[in-house]
Amino acid sequence: MSNLNNDSMGKRLDSVAIIMDGNGRWAKMRGLSRSEGHKAGAKAVAEVLKLFREYGVHHLTLYAFSTENWKRPKEEVDALMELIYMYVENVVIKTLIKEKDLCVRFIGDKSVLPEKLREKCIEAEEMAKDRPFVCNVGLNYGGRDEIVRAANRAFSDGHRELSEKILSGYMYTAGSPDPDLVIRTGGDFRISNFLLWQSAYSEFIILDTLWPDFGRSDIDKCIKEYYSRNRRFGGLDPEDGESEANIT
Ligand code: FPP
Fold first, then answer.
1. Is the CB of 226 within 6 Å of ligand 1?
2. Distance in Å, CA 239 to ligand 1 centroid
3. How far, in Å, are 25, 28, 37, 196 from residue 32 at the CA level?
4. For residue 7, is pLDDT > 80?
5. CA–CA distance from 189 to each of 210, 214, 218 (Å)?
6. Beta strands at 203-206 and 59-66: parallel, antiparallel or unpaired
7. pLDDT tens digits for 127-164?
8. How far apart are the CA of 6 and the centre of ligand 1, in A?
9. CA 34 / ligand 1 centre spacing (Å)
10. CB atoms < 10 A from the CB of 221, how many?
11. Between the CA of residue 46 and those of 8, 69, 76, 87, 90, what are the distances in Å?
């Protein structure tokens, strides 16, 4: 494992989430259809997962299809659903057989997905559980939808008052740490309804790279940038805290 993912202070990068944007522009630049862009995007996924695992990142969350993506033209939505189905069947399931330390979870409301895709996702989830490396794939995922569902489920379980801890336990990501780092490819500065609850104190990196081109050099750049950030979680630097204490 490379030692890029470590700093002298013991800070670790263990959970990364990615908004994989730019497939359409990547395709347009090459005179290809948007679906060809998504195909190229799917190819990038396996390599990116492998690289983050090499760096010891145990939780990778990828935004594949949002609750708002249904607004796209029907041909694009259908092609994406078919592509994701083929990917789960031909890549994810084979990878889970080979890589004994990896499991996959599909986060989002699966109930409205095409039935054969929903079943394939469940099959992949059931094949491997509680393994140290977790890949969460957002499929019909929306951050607002997740929060509303979590609250409703908590109330129907009998909770009369919510706390952050209770609500966290009802999120699709329950049991996984919040992302240390959220990366967005494709250059837009917005969160697009992704992990609204979980990213409260995440570091954000926006890259101009279009998703199908995202690879090792961008990952190395992101990890270095992450370690240059000073995470205070709303508090003070330890040194600043000390000097304040000295003054009083
Ligand atoms: C955003 O690019 C990308 C998507 C809505 C789909 C993401 C899907 C994949 C990367 C492939 C399938 C994923 C898995 C996990 C197999 P865009 O279409 O909005 O690009 P644009 O902003 O350039 O138009």
1. no
2. 43
3. 10, 6, 7, 33
4. no
5. 14, 17, 17
6. unpaired
7. 999 999 999 999 999 999 999 999 999 999 999 999 99
8. 30
9. 9
10. 14
11. 30, 22, 22, 10, 12
The pLDDT tens digits of the residues spanning 180-233 come to 999 999 999 999 999 999 999 999 999 999 999 999 999 999 999 999 998 777
Query: Is the CB of residue 42 less than 8 Å from the CB of residue 24?
Result: no
- The two tokens of residue 152 are 């409703």
> Which residue type is seen at 21?
D
From the list 3, 5, 23, 69, the catalytic residue is: 69
| In contact, 57 and 14? CB cutoff 8 Å | yes
Taking the CA of residue 25 as reference, the ligand 1 atom at the shortest distance is 23
Q: Which of 20, 12, 13 is nearest to 194 (CA)?
A: 20
Question: Is residue 3 annotated as part of the catalytic site, yes or no?
Answer: no
Active site residue 21: yes
Range of weakest confidence among 1-5, 26-30, 84-88, 89-93: 1-5
Q: Which two tokens stand for residue 178?
A: 């919040």
DSSP 59: E
Tell the residue number behind the tokens 């000390």, with chain if given.
242
Q: Quote the Cα angle for 132-138-141, to 5°.
A: 140
Is residue 231 within 8 A of residue 44, CB to CB? The reply is no
Give CA–CA dist 82/160, Å, rounded: 42
| pTM (2 d.p.) | 0.92
Contact 83, 52 (CB under 8 A): no
